[in-house]
Description:
Blueprint: H1 2-10, H2 12-27, H3 29-35, E1 44-45, H4 54-61, H5 68-78, E2 82-86, E3 89-94, H6 97-105, E4 111-113, H7 117-123, H8 133-143, H9 149-173, E5 177-178, H10 179-196, H11 201-216, H12 229-252, H13 262-267, H14 280-311, H15 313-328, H16 338-342, H17 345-358, E6 364-368, E7 372-374, E8 377-379, E9 384-387, H18 389-393, H19 432-449, E10 450-454, E11 475-480
Parallel strand pairs: 1-2, 3-9
Antiparallel strand pairs: 2-3, 4-6, 5-11, 6-9, 7-8, 10-11
Amino acid sequence: MEDLVSLAQSHYDILIVAVICIGITIFASKAWRWTSTDKASIPGRLGLPFLGETFSFLSASNSTRGCYDFVRLRRSRYGKWFKTRIFGQIHVFLSSTEGARTVFASDFVGFNKEYVKPMKDAIGEKSVLYVPQHSHKRIRRLLSDLFSMDSLSKFVKKIDKIVIQKLKTLEQTGKSFSVLDFVTKMNFDAMCNMLMSVTDDSLLHKIEKDCLDVDKSMIALPVKIPGTRYYKGMKARERLAETFREMIDRRRNGIMEPSEDFLQSMLQRDSYPQNEKLDDSEIIDNLITLLIAGKSTTASAIMWCVKFLDENREALDRLREEQLAIARKKPEGTSLTLEDINKMSYGLKVVKETLRMSNVVLWFPRVALHDCTIDGFEIKKGWLVNVDATCIHYDPNLYKDPLKFNPSRFDETRKPYSFMPFGSGPRTCLGMNMAKVVMLVFLHRLTTGYKWTVDDLDPSLEKKSHIPRLRSGCPITLKPLNNAK
C-alpha cells in the first residue's frame, strides 16, 4: 500500500491530467472529429480541444528521454513540419533555415515571442523574454549594461577566482562531484552577487530553492491545485517577488547600504523619465528571469561539454594544448582577462560545438500576429511557431556527421540560421557573451589544472526538465595535471 501511495505522489501531475482527459473524452466526441480534420496543409494531430496532445508532451517530459522525445517521434511520423496542440494552443514546428530566417527576421512585425502558459507564468508578463515591442526595446536597453564589455571584463576576474578556489577544494577532497550541481551553484551565487550583492548563505539558499521550484513548474500542467509542481512554482514565485520587493524598499528607505550592482543602478533611475527606467514589477520579473535563465542554461552546457570532451580525447588534447599555451604566458597567480578569452580560438569552437549538440534551448517559440505562409505552409494568426533549433543543428545536410563532436567544423563559416543556440534577430539572448565567458573560464581552469574521470556514464536525462541535462549531473573526480603551470 505504501508503494502505491508513493507512486501516486510521484506522478501527481500526470494523474490529474489523466482524470481530466477521461472526463473530457466522454463529452467531446464531436469536438474530436472537428479538431482532427483541420483545414491547414501542415500534417499532424490536434486532438481534443485545449488538451490536444498535452498528456503525451507531459509524459515525454516525465521520462528519461526528455521532452524533445515528443517532437522527435512526431517528426519521424510527419516529417520536418508538423502541428500539434499543447496546453490549449496550436503549435507548429519548423526546422528549415529558410523558415527560421522568415520568423526571426519578422520579430515584432509578423511574430512575437510566446511561451506555453506555465513558462509564461513563471517568467512574468514584464520579463524581457515576453514583453511586446514597445516595452522590449526599453527593457533590453536598460538591461544591456549588465552585459557590456566593461561589465564582462569585471565579471571574468570574479568568476575566474571562484572557479580556481572551488575546483582546488574539490580536488583536495578527492571526492566525486556533479558538474551540473557545481556549476549551477557557482553561477547562481555569482549572479546573485552581481545583480543584488547577495552573499549571505541563508538568503542565497532561500532564493535558490524558490528559483528551483519556479524552474520545475515550467512544463507542468497549469492547474493551481496544492501539491502540483505548477502550484509549488507559483507560490515560490510569489515568495521571490516579496523577497525582491523587500530589498527594493529597504534600499529606498536607506535601511540597506547601497551597493554597486544591477538593482542599485535601476533604483538610481527613480527620478528619470518613464522611458529611461524600470518600474518595480519590471525589475522583479527580470531579476527572476536573469536568475533562472543564467543558472540553468550555462550550467547544463558546461555539463555536456565535460561529457563530450571526455568522450573525444583528440579534441580535449587540442583544447588543453591551447589553454596551457595561454597560461604559460601569464604571470603566476594572475586572473584571466577578456584579452585572454579572445585568444581562445579553439576553445570557442569547443563551446560552439557543445551548444550545437547539447541544445540547451530546444526550440524558439513565436506567435503569429497574422495569417502568413512559410515554406509553402499556411500559418494562422495566433498559432505558435516553434523554430526547432535542435533539428536544424542535427541536419546532415547542414552538418556532416552531425552526431560526432567535432569543434573543427567551425573552422568554416556556417550557413545563415544553421547555428542559433541563442536565437537570432532583435530577441537574440542578451547573455550570450556572458555564457561563453563562463564556459571558457571554466574550461581553461579545468584543462590547465586537472585531469578527470567521469564516474557515471548513464545517458538518461533528468525528468520534468525543459532543458536537456543528464540525470546524473555528470559526476567527475579530479586529479592534478602534472604538467600544469
